[in-house]
Protein 1
Amino acid sequence: MGKVILYICLLGLLTVSCQQVDKTVTSFKKDYSSAMTLTTSEWDSLFATYREPAIQHRRFKHQEVDSLVQQHAQKGILQVERIGASAAGRSISELTYGEGDIKVMLWSQMHGDEPTATMALLDIFNFLEGQEDDGDSLRNLLKNKLQIHFIPMLNPDGAEIYTRRNAQSVDLNRDARAQQTVEGKLLAARADAVKPAFGFNLHDQSIYYHVPETQNPVTISLLAPAYNPERDINETRGNAMKLIAGIQQMVQQYMPDAVAKYDDTHSPRGFGDNFQKWGASTVLIESGGLKGDVEKQQIRKLNFIIILNALMQIAEGSYEQYEITQYDDIPFNGSSLLHDVFIHNLEIGSDSIPLRTDIAIRRAENTIGRDYFVRGWVEDLGDLQESFGYDQVDASSLHFVQGKVSDKMISSVKELSRSQAFALLKQGFMAVRLNPAAVGSAEQFHNLPIHVFSQPTFYTTSRIDLGGTANFYLADDAGTLRYAVLNGYLIDLSQPLKETFKNRVL
């Protein structure tokens, strides 16, 4: 075997070194049959046990995370250090676990409006402090083999107002090269001090990416970032690819056909690309979309499982069992075809100019404090046969109907129950008026399946226009209202309400 390897190297047929070839051959012979495994039921049980109950929604603040971090500091199992402060003076902490030789860094929420992995890290902190359960062997493995450095909220100023950039309006993930921000300098300094062998760059991505050749949203997107424009594969990046192949297999156990790869174009400003360049096998994990998981609690659970499983494979070295070709087989994110609501073949024309076409609708979130409301609009119309939606309907036998405004006036949002609002909606009423004298901050938001307005007038959608509001009905040939499109939500009027509505008093 040694002569064969030497011959290959001398011919120059491989781009890797002889030492790397020898290592590849050796690792190929390893037996991973003794690698630690946990069943899905065991993972489920661990998550249920250690899920941090103080965080239930995405729009948590720095104070809540910092308070939990200080509680962990008091327990002493995780070593907690205040490593710096944000541009606005909010503390940034690092939590360290383990006494092993392999160093790993994980950083989350460098974009303030990408909090899913932060929730999962809080759950992982609880798990690492647990004892005398099915997780003991894993804890001991991680403690003895790894030294894990967690930075759970790198951009606390952005998190405070739920926005992507920091207090200076800089995208921290584009500051690895120049290091103009205090947060960017801090992350780079920690990378230099720790010199991790592995890195995890934890983000959220758009919920509108889909898995190619399917109508499934991408729930988890993965990437081994490129360390140079040529996107070469050295040992560092190759190890990240193998680790991702293992992550992909784990996700498939929970959500088949829900994984894709993020765009691997090299970004000289990006932290993931530079961590890879600095010698840390770096994995980007992007939390995407899942129908019905508005607050991303199921994706939070998935992050908990795949991060811990990846750490386990690093500790064992069992990620080496995977092939780079398995990473290559993961498709890239598909974009532009997935919408919140897709309506196929709807008649929206007039008697003189008929038009039967497709309608694509999306909803945008608008944050106010710890809450938010949505605004639905018509994103596209025309021949959209390749498009689809989280909710969709074939409207070939349906037609557009304009909604009505109820004569009823209410003195409080609480005066109208969901069932009463739904009854009005089924009668063709899309809006009800709130007494302007009763409007206050306490009634700013509501979850009713009807519009509530205090302004002098309210206009429902009289015709479907590009960029216009999405408030109308779909009726059958007999005139029966079958569906309501309310602020971009598709509501089946023949079924019980299931949707969680995030509407605002207008």
Protein 2
Amino acid sequence: MATAARATASDRYRPRPSVLEALRSPRILTKEVLAGLVVALALIPEAISFSIIAGVDPRVGLFSSFVMAVSIAFLGGRPAMITAATGAVALVIAPVAREYGMDYFLATVILAGVFQVILGAVGVAKLMRFIPRSVMVGFVNALAILIFTAQIPHLIDVPWQVYPLVIAGLVIIVGMPRLTKVVPAPLVAIVILTIITVTFAIAVPTVSDQGELPDSLPELLIPNVPLTGETFAIIAPYALAMALVGLMESLMTAKLVDDITDTHSHKTREALGQGAANVLSGIFGGMGGCAMIGQTMINVKASGARTRISTFLAGVFLLILVVGLGDIVGLIPMAALVAVMVMVSVATFDWHSIRPGTLKRMPIGETIVMVATVAVVVITHNLAIGVVLGVVVAMVIFARRVSHFTSVTRTIDEDASVPTAHYRVDGELFFASSNDLTTQFEYADDPDRVVIDMSRSHVWDASTVAALDAIVTKYENHGKRVVIEGMNESSSAMHARLTGNLGGEG
């Protein structure tokens, strides 16, 4: 039985198709290779722009994307997910580069990776089960909006030729799959639009306009910072914030890919892999990062990749393109990449969630949680803040909802040898539902004997035990005896452990 259980757990995390299956299938391998190439092209302008946000040289973001993509392909727990330099991480650690310099910046990235390894080892990934579906939908919709709004600057104050190029790119991406899916449509759009702009010498913004591409390989860099408590005090808050933001975004993205591919990912391994990838990124002079929802959607949804091969090749192609073919890559019009990202945002958004029929059927609380998550993420541009707030709102709404499911029924037994008031408590008792429990008893009017039947309820926390103690005390102050009966085993154990020891029961 134990062997069968282990086999089932192993099968659950087994990738489909596996790397070996992909290598043996020319069709699957071709799809993985081309997907990696498309992602690499899309990573270049993103990595450059995130470097600018972080206040570092463009090569720092590009090298970080290469190191993280390659390392997570081996270490991560979610096949086909893309990890690279991201805007969320850049925003968190930007003050370090600005105020303390590059060495402290790299030390922060390395320490963030160490924190992620520690958090992964203690099981933080298991907290993902507490994120409600409404928060997940809000997370996805907010990401789609952020991906779209990030393209707007590339469409403002640009030559008029940019607009027909973007439209042509959208037409290719939408129409190409109807003809053939052998070659990813985004790659076809990038190649065709690049050929058009070069052939007809159309002057539009290109990748080379976003920043200087590196011309050498990344080198091993050990941060030159004093190993003192003062250094730790400076970088630790930024490193912890980066670790938490990176893990949350990565684990949420992994869950999204799980849903898209109908497969399972190993969340703890992903957390550990993210940490190791950030450590390696810092050692090789990178800015660190986490999973990228946009590029992951290009890889998984637009290109149909399913294995670690595409993730690995995305990093390899990125390095080859920027170091060996930088002059050619620099010719790619930004209009082509904007078209790709616009289609990614459209495909990412959960349109079903905002249909009138869905909104009508959905409980109002679920809609409030989704909208709150979207609003906070879009306003702050911080996915972690939005998700945490969404979870908090969901918890408050849930607590309010279940607090009304508790009821107290009173009957008087006049025929007993001793007149007795019987109270039956129904429902789940915790801080939200037990606060009003003391108000539902007739202390002055009840007979001298009171029985409280708890057989149809459950005690979840100390607040409930304190409420029961307060009820007993109030009856005793009226000279009446109370018997609490019918508690299940766990409720009885908690009550026995805490009753009389919480203070202030009167």
Protein 3
Amino acid sequence: MKNILHTLFITLFYCTGLFAQDAIHSGVPWFDQNGKIVSAHGANIVKDGNKFYLFGEKHSDTSNAFAGFSCYSSVDLYNWKDEGIALGVQSKGRLGPNRVGERAKVMKCPKTGEYIMLMHTDSLGYKDPCIGYATAKTIAGPYAFKGPVLFNGTPIRKWDMGTFQDSDGAGYLLIHGGLMYKLSDDYTSITEEVVDNKWKGSESPAIFKRNGIYYWLVSDLTSWERNDNVYYTATSLNGPWVPKGFFAPESSLTWNSQTTFVLQITGSKETTYMFMGDRWSFPLQASAATYVWQPLTFTDDAISIPNYYESWKINTATGMVSGSKLEGKTVTASDKSIRYTGQWKQGLNSISKTETNSNATNAKLSYTFKGSQVALYGTALPIGGYAGVTIKDSKGSVVVTTIIDMYCKYAQSGLRFLSPVLKKGSYTIEVTVMGQHSKWSDKRKNDYGSTGNVVSIEKLLVH
């Protein structure tokens, strides 16, 4: 039955002219069965039946206002079908127009059989925080917003949050700063405060359990900027919680991402725990923000992501992880078959001399290829900017369009864009320097983000 469902699901991609991916690719835009950007950040995944359901924040490129919580489904964690908006903007109230809705987390309540979504609601200025909840009879929704989650009749007026469902079916609400509440049997209210660790900062909380040990992952307070996330362990949710330090190499900024969830994938041979992180890109969160999903490594009770895998595979039936490498014809940035317009040059600061770079608005490169997929490699930099990417078919019709963010606090070379798998044919990829970059200020008026508009291209890979 599972193989039949997988075949039917993958057929959706053939019907739209987009063919299936065969691996998880981190740090690049993902496309659904309709060729649109997968927009589901601050997310979690729930396995229901033979499918995985991804819930997260839908974004726009013009405002941080709540635009709805998205739902996508997948049978393999590689290819995602848009199931629509699970919870949309309300006519008024805490999730009404010009409000904030963040970090939607869904759990199925064992007692009632209902699906419960918890989320952070707020004003656009982040001065009216409150944890709210919504319910649905079916996993994809639509969900009905019910209002605040109450503890002793009072709303939880906090912001960054997560959820955890223990092996005994009990549900928990996690709050920034190391605060945890236990949910009622129906998951719609709070029955007790479990622990308040009073950790400094500690946003984007996520907990998972393995071999009787609880792991609590958190990030520091740097707004949408990435930082070195840390974790704690305990043998009881009540603690004591022991600080364990970074779980990715120091200064990698958690491989340039922020924790949102850890998914347990239990198979017939192994159980894999997948770190799910967001690579935010304010203000173009809809187009340019991406995802970093990586398998966690365990050494006794320690976790780590020692290496960053741009591409990797997970067999959801066996739970086993394997490597993956993109293959194809390499076309270096200096290849004469690539056409450049505007101002481009080779070599910039610490970038390899073989890379071609530009910060000139509307500077463009284009390359015509025959095949079914194209990948773009380059270097993200502290002075990196936005690049528009378009693929046109032989008739000049646009088949793919997106934006990629070339910003990182340190020089990070690697995969920046991977097209959907298209019907084999002749296509032209165009990359345009937009003359813009990610930049923002937090509530304390601290400035973050890039200081330039550079787009740095290393090579194309055509399959």
Protein 4
Amino acid sequence: MIPITSFAGKTVAVFGLGGSGLASCHALKAGGAEVIAADDNAENVAKAAQAGFITADLRSVSWANFAALVLAPGVPLTHPVPHWSVLKAREAGVEVIGDIELFCRERRRHAPDAPFVAITGTNGKSTTTALIAHLTKVAGYDTQMGGNIGTAILSLEPPRMGRVHVIEMSSYQIDLTPSLDPSVGILLNVSEDHIDRHGTIEHYAAVKERLVAGVQGGGTSIVGVDDGYCRDIADRLDRAGKNVVRISVKNPLASGIYVEHGTIVRAAGGARSEVAALGGIGSLRGQHNAQNAACAAAAALAMGISQDVLQNGLRSFPGLAHRMEQVGRRGNVLFVNDSKGTNADATAHALSSFSEIFWIAGGKPKAGGITSLTGFFPRIRKAYLIGEAAQEFSGTLGTVQHEISQTLDVAVEHAARDAEASGLTDAVVLLSPACASFDQYRNFEIRGTKFRELVQALPGVQPVV
């Protein structure tokens, strides 16, 4: 835990008492603050009270003595309308911040030069965060990984030299971190997302920009420039005098880091040098993972990690569970768990990574279905459709060979049988549902775990090394 000493002797309201909210309560109390905890959910309030915190309905108390409102990132700050607690804070002139802002203030007080890597982007945040954490561990750092990837930042160990914090940040978290100042900031990409919480794509992009714009003096801003929003952001950072490293997986760069024929290349001053090879690394397959790897490599180089250590780290990266996770092989058939592919855009990354696909898809459908994936249909040898979306997807697939399997266990059995019988040398049984899981599973993790168990129970399946 990171005790928050910057509010010692003051009273702080905390609204939103899930994982990060409760962690904030504990960290503030450990640092000497008095905490008033609140939530719209009575069960969460009861849990906070059981943990020993004062709880209250913030609508009926005086805000005069509150030094800050610490807001959970899931609570609306601006759109579609500010939460009532935010309005109360504004009326009282009380600042509204989040748990990562508390971390930033603590770091500046006690270890301002401790390495702090912050990662954002519409897609690829979690893989890039996990990959950077893996690289820094391989390089010998005491690595603390958290934020949006799962562990609340204030549940990690405190900043100090030799210890690096690798933190994934959503746009919601950035919005609540006004003094965000990482030593290395990464913006992977920007595409339309979370407009309900930001109003417009322009505002969403502006929030993302703050992460790389706030990099501390002497630090490094790493920006993927394969979309227009990020190209403009990189140009603005340049004009502001930031140390900007541009990243591309689509085009060579005169200055920056790009990927060409499976090799990460660094260009500077008219010279180019090969940094690392991505060929044969199954956990980093596909163009989207090439971008993740290039950004992670740029972060590693900015931290002084050698190219040998970088290459070894890339090769030993196991990948994230449920994201293009290779869960087994039987003969020429590879089994891949991409249960995190919960919409068509995410599934497009998986389909683009293989050419002989026995595709398991379906679940609770999302708007648009799989119509945007028609360009990948020639890669599909057969599809196995499950859940509520099965009939809809069947209509979209048209002449693509497919069956309605209904359940995951039937789909796995039939896909494994057909893939093996095909005789193809690169056959892949791919779970990438392009759907939510909620019709048959509580979340995508449980769905992916079930897939892994079913695959590994098949006769002759071996783990992927």
